[in-house]
């Protein structure tokens, strides 16, 4: 493996080590208010064309919350998995 391949493989594994799951409107809001997303942050996000998502690490399962623009979500749709939580 040459140097460039090594760098590229590092970059690839780094970027493909996670996936996103959208937070459904009926799920609890990510901000720990205890309210559902649709009656908490969702209206605000909707107005600014943003959505809250979970970013989940493939290797550790560690979850972080992110607010992404709808545009970015569409652009990265292949990184999204369907939510397993039944609403
Ligand atoms: Zn909230």
Topology:
Elements: H1 3-15, E1 18-22, H2 42-47, E2 50-57, E3 63-69, H3 70-75, E4 80-81
Parallel strand pairs: 1-4
Antiparallel strand pairs: 1-2, 2-3
The protein binds zinc ion (ZN).
If you had to describe this structure to a student in words, what would you say it looks like?
This is SEC-C domain-containing protein. By secondary structure, this protein is of the alpha+beta class. The chain has one domain (18-81). It has three helices and four strands; from the N terminus they run αβαββαβ. The chain has helices at residues 3-15, 42-47, 70-75; strands spanning 18-22, 50-57, 63-69, 80-81. The protein has a four-stranded mixed sheet with strand order 3-2-1-4. The mean pLDDT is 88. The protein binds zinc ion. Zinc ion binds next to loops.
Q: Order the strands across the largest sheet as they lie in space.
A: 3-2-1-4
Instruction: Kindly give the count of domains.
Output: 1
> What is the string of SSEs from the N terminus onward?
HEHEEHE
Largest β-sheet summary: 4 strands, mixed
Oligomer: single chain
The kinds of small molecule bound in this structure are: zinc ion
The percent of residues in helical segments reads: 25-40%
Question: What is the end-to-end distance?
Answer: 48 Å
Tally of helical runs: 3
- What would you call the structural class? alpha+beta
> Tell me, what's the shape?
elongated
Q: What is the percentage of strand-forming residues?
A: 25-35%
């Amino acid at each position: 493996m040459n140097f460039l391949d090594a760098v590229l493989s590092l970059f690839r594994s780094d970027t493909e080590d996670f996936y996103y799951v959208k937070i459904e409107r009926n799920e609890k809001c990510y901000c720990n208010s205890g309210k559902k997303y649709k009656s908490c942050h969702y209206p605000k996000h909707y107005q600014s064309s943003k959505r809250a998502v979970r970013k989940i690490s493939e290797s550790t399962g560690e979850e972080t919350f992110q607010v992404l623009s709808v545009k970015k979500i569409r652009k990265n749709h292949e990184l999204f998995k369907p939510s397993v939580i039944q609403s």
